[in-house]
Design a protein that fits this description.
elongated, mainly alpha, 182 residues
């Protein structure tokens, strides 16, 4: 599209933006819009000037907005770093949580749970909690430099559950779903 041509924006057009203050000098809209035009996608990219004092309010409303994507430029990158630290914490906590469930479902129960047994399940599975804790500790305490910490926590929680739950089975101890269904 030539500079003299106008972009056709409809209700179906996805809108992405870069925020900063000042942001008028940003080349991001021009670069992104050339890419969108050359690939034929119905997207547009705009610059939104958000003063530093308005950043918290803007970010609070972002989730409810129709913006499909957001880039951040100075001086907001420093302010957004705190938010990214929070996201990093979630990324370390969630994967180890699912590890015991994956192992229990796929390895110990052959991809089958009888949903009629859900009401009979114990309130918690101590081996699953211990496995989750091991995964979280591993994610925070030591992660190989070549691996994402959340993935390392997931692997550790899966191995811990495999060992602990499998060991309990060897000694005839039934836990979790196995307590109500073999």
């Amino acid at each position: 599209m030539r500079e003299s041509e106008t972009r056709r924006i409809t209700a179906r057009t996805s809108v992405a933006a870069v925020i900063g203050h000042p942001v008028g000098q940003s080349l991001s809209p021009a670069i992104h819009n050339v890419g969108f035009d050359s690939t034929g996608v119905d997207w547009t990219y705009v610059a939104i000037d958000v003063p530093v004092s308005g950043l918290p309010a803007f970010m609070s409303s972002f989730a409810q907005s129709s913006l499909a994507g957001l880039s951040v430029t100075m001086p907001h990158k420093k302010a957004m770093a705190g938010f990214m630290d929070w996201i990093d914490q979630i990324a370390n906590l969630v994967p180890p949580l699912i590890g015991p469930i994956i192992v229990d479902y796929y390895i110990f129960h052959g991809r089958h749970y009888d949903t009629s047994a859900l009401d009979e399940l114990p309130a918690w599975n101590p081996v699953a909690v211990l496995s989750f804790a091991a995964g979280v500790v591993a994610a925070y305490a030591y992660t190989p430099p070549w691996m994402a910490s959340g993935l390392w926590g997931l692997i550790v929680s899966m191995v811990a559950y495999l060992i602990l739950f499998g060991g309990a089975r060897v000694f005839g101890i039934r836990l979790g779903y196995s307590k109500v269904r073999s």
